[in-house]
Each structure stands twice: as structure tokens, then as C-alpha cells.
Design a protein that fits this description.
disordered N terminus, eleven-stranded mixed β-sheet, globular, about 25% helix
């Protein structure tokens, strides 16, 4: 009998009082069907649901064959001490049941569930190897995050959301073979929460030889946002980009002016996302006049001492 069968039973009439109490004590993993083919799995603090139980719940979900996107939220009742390793192991050991999955989001948690800097991530090398049809991977949290040696011919979208991006992860992306990647978004964050990169690391990363099909580039959530704008403007990827995302960081008029100066080079650009920024009203008006869609929501004001913060840190 599986752990799932033991906890939930198959025959209500045969279920003993002790089994019912065990079910009550253990709780039930939460699920939300967000749309056709898209489902989120999660548990809650003090629910009694471990990552082992959640993994088995996912594996035995009757909806699994119909899903295209799996979202994993809080994966263990003791989330502060647990990584998603047991869920990864389940997927790797049962890889034949996940070959149809096209999208994964690992770590979809709100601040009240777990601060982003506290999310303990895992090693994705083997998981990516056994998901050859995966097109989109979103990872939230960078503590203990390892991508490993990545060689994936179908991945089109990679998003890493965190309060501090380690240089090790940037180096792994730099060494990866992702010839069909179309969308790359990296949240930089702050040194206090794990950021350990230099601007030159991003300049070495965003090259056409590495991402020949990239159309959406997001270098976001940085206290060095103006410098990242320069990295994008000076990249040989620029002529092929359709969307540039420089949101969530400490973007000032200096970065805005770099965009204005490079306007004639943005030949294929369809959209510029600069939401959450520190630009002046005058600069915003100038950027809004550019001949493509521009988003400049959530303007910020520096603190009295001039200090500015990215949107996501802790």
C-alpha cells in the first residue's frame, strides 16, 4: 500500500477510526486548477503534509496526464528546512509519466508563506535532462540553487526570481547549451541576500552566440539597474530583441538616457518594461514618446538620504 493510499484510503467503508484520525492529522495537499492543463500543488504550514506526501500526491493525481504546466508552491509543512529534492526524485524516477509536461514553476510562494530569500532550492541538472520536452522553467528562490550542466534543445523560457542571484548560477547559464531559448529573465537582488555577480558577468552572458533565438531579455531587480541597461544596449543581442525588461530595480534618469540615446538601435523592439523605477517625470515623458509599447508603472522616490532599493530582496 502506498503512502497516499494509507493516508487517504480507497474504500471509505473499510477505513478504520485510526486511519481517519491519521488522515485528519496528516492533512491533505492543496491543489488549484488554474486553467486547462495548468495546476498548482502546495501544502500549508503545520498541515502535516511533507514533501514526500506531496510528491506522491502529484504522481497519483488523475489529472496528471492532461496537464501541460505544473506549479509547485510550498512543498513541505516545514518549508524553512526543506528543499524540493524529494519532488525532483519522484519526477526523475517516474520520468515516463512527465514527458508531456511543457512548463514548470518551482517555488511559487507568497511572502506570508515564505520569504523569497528563505526558499531552499535544489539541483536541476538531472530534472532538466529527463524533461526533454520542457519549454518553460521558472524558479523562485536562489538559496542552494544549482542548475548544473544544462543541455536542453527545446527550452524556450528561463526565469529565475530571487532576492540575490549567485555568480555560480550565472556561470552555469553561461556554460549551458540552450539554442532555442527565446526568453531569459534574471532577478539580481542585493548582496545581503546572496547576490555575488559583477556587471561584467552579465556582459559576458548576453551574447548572440549563446542565445541566437533570444527575443525577450530581462535583467531586472538590481541596485545596479542603470549599468544593466548599458549591458543590454551594448550587447550584440540588441537588434534581435522584441522585449526588453529592466523593471523592479533602481533605474534612474541615467539609465533612461541610455535608452533614449540607443533608440535608433532598437529596430525590432516592440515593448520596454521599466515598471518600478526611480526616473523623473521629465524622463518618463521622453521615454513614453518612443515608438514602441512602454510600461513605467510604480514610480519610486529615493529615501531622504538618497538610498534606493530593488523591489525584491528578502
Amino acid at each position: 500500500m502506498s503512502l497516499l493510499e494509507k493516508l487517504f484510503g480507497k474504500n471509505e467503508n473499510a477505513e478504520s477510526f485510526n486511519q481517519r484520525e491519521e488522515v485528519k492529522k496528516a492533512g491533505v495537499p492543496g491543489t488549484v486548477m488554474l486553467s486547462d492543463g495548468e495546476k498548482k500543488y502546495f501544502t500549508e504550514y503545520d498541515s502535516g503534509v511533507s514533501s514526500e506526501l506531496l510528491a506522491e500526491y502529484i504522481l497519483n493525481d488523475p489529472c496528471l496526464p492532461e496537464l501541460r504546466k505544473i506549479i509547485i508552491g510550498v512543498w513541505d509543512q516545514e518549508i524553512y528546512d526543506a528543499d524540493p529534492g524529494k519532488i525532483f526524485t519522484m519526477m526523475i524516477n517516474n520520468q515516463e509519466k512527465f514527458q508531456h509536461i511543457e512548463s514548470l514553476f518551482i517555488g511559487d510562494m507568497e511572502a506570508e508563506e515564505n520569504e523569497i530569500s528563505w526558499i531552499k532550492q535544489g539541483n536541476y541538472e538531472e530534472l532538466l535532462r529527463v524533461f526533454p520536452n520542457l519549454k518553460s522553467l521558472t524558479i523562485q528562490g536562489s538559496d542552494s540553487l544549482v542548475l548544473g550542466k544544462v543541455n536542453h534543445l527545446k527550452l524556450e523560457e528561463l526565469v529565475i526570481i530571487c532576492g540575490g542571484l549567485p555568480i555560480s548560477v550565472v556561470n552555469e547559464i553561461k556554460s549551458a547549451n540552450l539554442p532555442n531559448l527565446k526568453k531569459l529573465i534574471l532577478y539580481s537582488g542585493d548582496e545581503s541576500y546572496g547576490y555575488s555577480c559583477n556587471i561584467s558577468d552579465f556582459a559576458e552572458l548576453v551574447k548572440k552566440e549563446r542565445f541566437p533565438n533570444l527575443q525577450y531579455l530581462g535583467l531586472v531587480n538590481s541596485f545596479e539597474q542603470d549599468d544593466l541597461v548599458r549591458v543590454i544596449i551594448e550587447s550584440d543581442l540588441l537588434p534581435q530583441l522584441e522585449i526588453i525588461d529592466i523593471s523592479c530595480g533602481c533605474l534612474t534618469d541615467k539609465g533612461g538616457q541610455l535608452i533614449l540615446n540607443a533608440a535608433d538601435k532598437l529596430v525590432n523592439l516592440k515593448e520596454l518594461n521599466a515598471d518600478y523605477h526611480y526616473m523623473s517625470e521629465d524622463m518618463m515623458e521622453k521615454i513614453k514618446a518612443l515608438p514602441f509599447k512602454v510600461s513605467l508603472n510604480d514610480a519610486q522616490e529615493p529615501y531622504d538620504d538618497g538610498e534606493m532599493w530593488p523591489m525584491i530582496t528578502e
